[in-house]
């Protein structure tokens, strides 16, 4: 995956041009059947790490390979006002008018992030509404994300329901598709009480997809564990070792119990070398593929532009529908009225 700063939404892929099907069975009890559509996004800050990969991106690839209709985006908050994406900000505003400040203030990601700054930017507060606009604009039915996004997804469902109740069926109620809970949140290698994150200052806290074998070895060696030497899986009492075992398990498909059994007799220092070797081996093909893509910026640009063009057709359709339902669409009749009144003024 290539992360490019500068555009709010780069569409990476839009599989199958299946159209959205709305089936109206009867006028009184309208039943809508939405075609599956998968939508997800990743922020463009920093480099993708194992938490992103196992928490979300691996699922994206699975769903794409299963032939689902998918749209994956790079969510670039820095340029939300660029003209390519007016539908996102317009729908964000519309949805913002349907929710309350109290509701947004209760969202855990907002609480966590706002606690770290003295002055809370408005953008932090409104962020989940923008995320709702991203998803609803494409009438997505499924949203593969990491477990930390589930509260944001609850807001999206809430907004879709409010909108549908007020203006008639417009959006499917999207479902979060979250990885198995035991592996849903990889921890920082430097502080296993925190999640592995792109925004953590210390790069040794995460293994990035593009890390070289030497980087991986160094980071595994420096991973914070504890003073017990044997290898046991106890996420509560031994979160550092459990995190390494989880990574090992994710890459090999082995059970944590099997891993512990295979490594009886090793101390944590030696086990770190075993984990490093597993990661080096499994990550190498991915790293090489990323390098190959990075050497072809024109191709990447082409894919992004092609995807953005396809996505913008859907976004424009949805926005027109929303605008009309909300009463913002100036139709031909009202346009003529404006012209008449303009003449009168002159
Ligand atoms: P972000 O890095 O915040 O743009 O996250 C992109 C995707 O990766 C989101 O669906 C997150 O929920 C997921 N994610 C980020 N960090 C982790 C982690 N440490 N463990 C599992 N999933 C994660
Ligand atoms: N909030 C997501 C994150 O922090 C990124 C994101 C933005 C997203 N818009 C989205 C994810 C729409 C899924 C769907 O990782």
Write up what this structure looks like.
The chain has 346 residues and is mainly alpha-helical. The chain has two domains: 33-183, Rossmann fold (3-Layer(aba) Sandwich); 188-294, Tyrosyl-Transfer RNA Synthetase (Orthogonal Bundle), CATH 1.10.240. It contains twelve helices and five strands. The chain has helices spanning 50-65, 86-96, 101-105, 108-114, 122-137, 150-167, 213-221, 239-252, 256-262, 268-294, 297-326, 332-345; strands spanning 9-14, 38-42, 70-75, 142-145, 175-178. The longest helix has 30 residues, at 297-326. The termini are far apart. The model is unreliable at 1-30, 78-83 and 340-346 (pLDDT under 50). Bound molecules: adenosine monophosphate and tryptophan. Tryptophan (TRP) binds next to strand 2, helix 5 and strand 4.
